[in-house]
């Protein structure tokens, strides 16, 4: 199936069945790694909302949830400037943090967020991202611990990810058709 948003056409890329299966595996790893801990799971809005919801349903350890909102993309390009739009509401000092992203592309957003969170002295920070584009990554980010899928350097939408605000509300993930 294809998806059209404005002037762009997207083709099927990752089906929800596969996403669901992969999330179950990530959650098992998190359940093991954080046994006897109470991490704060922080979703990076907007894109992470679907992944965060599905992942948290599979996480069985005790945990808290919070959100932070940043944005940097316009059209299909990173503006390079990460803008914080909404901050955290929980004190994270001495707490274990799991940051939830839908996608790590250039790594700019994550680098900005990790540096910012570190100033608040958490006990640890790890990142879980559904998608990672290894060929687009410009930063070395040691905190990346849980990755759903490594993908090619193509623009994707669906399952939370948007193109200019549209396309977040699909179960499957689509890739730009060239
Ligand atoms: O690694 P990067 O190149 O920084 O790209 C990744 C970021 O870009 C997207 O956010 P966006 O700014 O589009 O906001 P959104 O989540 O509201 O769509 C995505 O959700 C990540 O946070
Ligand atoms: O490929 C992408 N799709 C949607 N949003 C994004 N933000 C960074 N990369 C992407």
Question: What do these coordinates show?
Answer:
This protein has 178 residues and is an alpha/beta fold. The protein has helices at residues 16-33, 49-58, 108-118, and strands spanning 2-5, 8-14, 40-45, 64-74, 77-86, 96-104, 124-132, 144-150, 156-157, 173-176. The protein has a single domain, classed as Rossmann fold, CATH 3.40.50.2020. The chain is 22% helix and 39% strand. The strands form two sheets. A six-stranded mixed beta sheet has the order 5-4-3-6-7-8, with helices on both faces. It has a four-stranded antiparallel beta sheet with strand order 1-2-10-9. Strand 3 (40-45), helix 2 and strand 4 form a beta-alpha-beta unit. The relative contact order is 0.22. The structure holds 1-O-pyrophosphono-5-O-phosphono-alpha-D-ribofuranose and hypoxanthine (HPA). Hypoxanthine (HPA) binds at residues 73, 103, 105, 155-157, 161-162.
Please specify the SSE layout and strand pairing.
Blueprint: E1 2-5, E2 8-14, H1 16-33, E3 40-45, H2 49-58, E4 64-74, E5 77-86, E6 96-104, H3 108-118, E7 124-132, E8 144-150, E9 156-157, E10 173-176
Parallel strand pairs: 3-4, 3-6, 6-7, 7-8
Antiparallel strand pairs: 1-2, 2-10, 4-5, 9-10
Helix pairs in contact: 1-2
This protein binds 1-O-pyrophosphono-5-O-phosphono-alpha-D-ribofuranose (PRP) and hypoxanthine.
Residues 73, 103, 105, 155-157, 161-162 line the site of hypoxanthine.
Keywords: Cytoplasm, Glycosyltransferase, Magnesium, Metal-binding, Nucleotide-binding, Purine salvage, Transferase
Cofactor: Mg(2+)
Pathway: Purine metabolism; IMP biosynthesis via salvage pathway; IMP from hypoxanthine: step 1/1
């Amino acid at each position: 199936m294809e998806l059209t948003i404005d002037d762009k056409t997207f083709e099927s890329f990752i089906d929800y069945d596969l996403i669901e299966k992969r999330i179950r595996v990530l959650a098992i790893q998190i359940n093991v790694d954080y046994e006897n801990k109470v991490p704060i799971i922080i979703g990076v809005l907007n894109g992470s909302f679907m992944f965060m919801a599905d992942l948290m349903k599979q996480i069985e350890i005790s945990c808290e949830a919070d959100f932070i909102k940043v944005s940097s993309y316009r059209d299909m390009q990173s503006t390079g400037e990460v803008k914080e739009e909404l901050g955290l509401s929980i004190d994270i000092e001495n707490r274990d943090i799991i940051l939830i992203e839908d996608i790590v592309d250039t790594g700019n957003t994550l680098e900005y967020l990790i540096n910012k969170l570190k100033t608040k002295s958490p006990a640890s920070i790890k990142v879980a991202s559904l998608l990672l584009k290894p060929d687009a990554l410009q930063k070395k980010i040691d905190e990346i611990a849980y990755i759903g899928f490594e993908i090619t350097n193509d623009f994707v939408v669906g399952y939370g990810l948007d193109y200019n605000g549209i396309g977040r509300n699909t179960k499957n993930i689509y890739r730009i058709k060239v």
